[in-house]
């Protein structure tokens, strides 16, 4: 039995269908590889910097079928490990800056504690000075009171001496000498009071 003859139009149609199926299979393969690249790119950058070869392999297989925009974006990502040294240097710089920052914080903390200790010491010293001033003020006030009291006593002695002088016709010496004697004797008492208060 003779097979039916395939016309030229049917041959063209079959070729077009075969090409379409091939393109569809190729398109699905590209999509699968892009999905695989996407999955790999979702890893941590530090992993990709160590080894991006799986991405490079997939990228080389499909790059002739990609748009210029995709090629431009995927090329640096596929060869990201070229930036390994730069990233390591950047990490070192960050670590150094953090260490410097921590050292500065530590220094500031130590300085702050020192200043706080000095402040507390100055507050204590100020409190002692204020107490000493208060004691000195009290002593001055007591001296003033003692002086006023002594003046009153002295005036009483003077008045008493005048009265006695008026009652007696003639007394040896002079008022001035007697007054000086009383003052001298009273000064003995005042010096004793002052010495005791100073000793206290």
What can you see in these coordinates?
Keywords: Coiled coil. Residues 112-153 form a coiled coil. This protein has 200 residues and is mostly helical. The chain has two domains: 8-78, no CATH class; 88-199, no CATH class. It is 85% helix and 0% strand. It contains six helices and no strands. It has helices spanning 8-41, 45-50, 53-62, 68-78, 84-167, 175-199. The radius of gyration is 56 Å and the shape is rod-shaped. The termini are far apart. The mean pLDDT is 81.
Instruction: Report, as a whole number of angstroms, the end-to-end distance.
Output: 147 Å
Number of domains: 2
Global shape: rod-shaped
Order of SSEs, N→C?
HHHHHH
The low-confidence parts are none
- Calculate the mean pLDDT score and round it: 81
Q: Over the alpha carbons, how many angstroms does the gyration radius reach?
A: 56 Å
Summarize the biggest pleated sheet: none
Quick overview:
The chain has six helices and no strands.
Write the layout of secondary structure elements.
Layout: H1 8-41, H2 45-50, H3 53-62, H4 68-78, H5 84-167, H6 175-199
List keywords for this structure.
200 residues, 85% helix, mainly alpha, rod-shaped
């Amino acid at each position: 039995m003779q097979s039916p003859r395939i016309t030229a139009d049917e041959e063209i149609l079959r070729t077009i269908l075969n090409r379409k199926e091939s393109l569809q299979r190729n398109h699905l393969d590209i999509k699968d590889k892009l999905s695989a690249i996407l999955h790999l790119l979702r890893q941590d950058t530090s992993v990709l910097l160590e080894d991006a070869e799986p991405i490079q392999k997939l990228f080389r297989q499909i790059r002739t079928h990609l748009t210029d925009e995709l090629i431009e974006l995927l090329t640096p990502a596929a060869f990201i490990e070229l930036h390994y040294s730069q990233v390591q240097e950047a990490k070192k710089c960050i670590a150094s800056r953090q260490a410097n920052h921590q050292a500065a914080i530590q220094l500031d903390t130590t300085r702050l504690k020192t200043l706080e200790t000095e402040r507390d010491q100055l507050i204590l010293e100020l409190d002692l000075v204020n107490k000493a001033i208060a004691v000195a003020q009290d002593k001055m006030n007591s001296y003033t009171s003692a002086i006023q009291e002594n003046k009153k006593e002295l005036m009483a002695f003077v008045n008493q001496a005048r009265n006695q002088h008026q009652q007696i016709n003639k007394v040896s010496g002079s008022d001035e000498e007697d007054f000086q004697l009383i003052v001298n004797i009273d000064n003995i008492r005042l010096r004793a009071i002052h010495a005791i208060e100073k000793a206290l």
